[in-house]
Design goal:
The chain is of the alpha/beta class. The protein has helices at 16-25, 37-46, 63-73, 85-95, 109-137, 150-162; strands spanning 7-11, 30-34, 51-55, 78-83, 101-104. It has six helices and five strands; from the N terminus they run βαβαβαβαβαα. It has a five-stranded parallel β-sheet with strand order 2-1-3-4-5, with helices on both faces.
């Protein structure tokens, strides 16, 4: 699971859920808490937060403003929205601005833990894939490919052109 370098910002009101989340995560992650927009902005500007858990039912927090701030700062911060069914329906709009997921109340600790674990697993896998891609890019990418035909050369050009992108490319045709 996460290690000390994984930083989580918990944006919630002071209630039993906050205490529950804090007790569960304070030993596994570097945990920060914000109860207002200004506290959240301060923490986001000071810390390089990996994950934000934000309660959309918190009246002191403007979730849309916070998400815009996170995206403006440019962190690769993941965002989980927590809320009741109505706030989750409203949060669908927020998903469009790249929130990772919504967690509907009442939630279980296992549900949140599994989602957090998945975020950090995905991040670590992405870093590993990026590192491997960079290493492989150092070697000639057509080393084991053979072909002199005009069409296969075109395929080689396509591979070379798209190899630096993050997108998925499928090349089809006759073998």
């Amino acid at each position: 699971m996460g290690n000390k370098k994984d930083k989580i910002l918990l944006i919630v009101t002071e209630d039993q859920n906050q205490k529950w989340l804090c007790e569960k995560f304070q030993n596994k992650y570097e945990l920060f808490i914000a109860k207002t927009n200004s506290e959240a902005e301060e923490k986001l500007n000071e810390k390089n937060v990996d994950l934000v858990l934000m309660d959309m039912d918190c009246s002191e927090i403007d979730g849309f403003k916070i998400i815009k701030l996170i995206r403006h700062i440019g962190h690769r911060t993941e965002i989980f929205l927590i809320g009741n069914a109505i706030s989750i329906n409203n949060a669908i709009k927020v998903i469009k601005v790249r929130a990772r997921d919504c967690i509907e109340k009442p939630y279980t600790m296992d549900e949140i833990e599994n989602k957090i674990h998945r975020v950090f697993e995905d991040r670590d896998a992405e870093i590993e894939i990026h590192t491997i891609s960079e290493e492989m890019g150092k070697y000639h990418i057509f080393e084991n490919m053979v072909g002199t035909d005009k069409k296969i050369r075109k395929v080689f050009e396509l591979i070379k052109m798209y190899s630096a992108s993050d997108g998925t490319v499928l090349i089809q045709g006759e073998s």
